[in-house]
Design brief:
By secondary structure, the chain is mainly alpha-helical. It has a domain of 120 residues. It is 59% helix and 10% strand. The chain has five helices and two strands. Strands 1-2 form a two-stranded antiparallel sheet. The chain is elongated, with a radius of gyration of 36 Å. The chain starts with a helix and ends with a strand. Keywords: Membrane, Signal, Transmembrane, Transmembrane helix.
Length: 184
Amino acid sequence: MHKIIFIGLFLFITGNTTVFAQTEAVLVAKDTLKSNNIDPLTPAKAAFYSAVLPGLGQAYNKKYWKIPLVYGAIGTSLYFYIDNNKKYHQYRDAYKSRLEGHVTDDLAFLDNNRLIAGQKFYQRNRDLSALFVVAFYALNIIDANVDAALIQFNVDENLSIRPVLYPNDVTLKTNVGLTFNYNF
């Protein structure tokens, strides 16, 4: 019983000493305007990094999920370029050897017109694949640049656009619209 009274008295004294102690209150003014440090060179850095190594600009922007997309697009286009180039050379070499009088076993069943058509087909596909490689490489650089610029874009919670349903007083039908709200 004495222990319970002693513990209760101890807690009462320590609890009240903090209540009755004099403390200095420091008022801190809260800045309502949050200053964002905007670095105008961030988009240029991201574009440069993507130009040096595709996907590095996306890593700089911390958009890691885009890196496999970049390498998938460029890698697939590069694969088709190499495959079409190999088949183009195969058809071209078979046609040249046939003109020299040598018959190869791999494309012996095709006539000269089919070998020429095959060359044109694979040459066209090879050129398109090269164009896709360059286009995806440029798209990688543009994506890194735009994404770095949009990261610095100020999106405030006080600004909103919401869909609204409101009745039309004349026709008594429901109208659909958008409201633009800005809270000060």
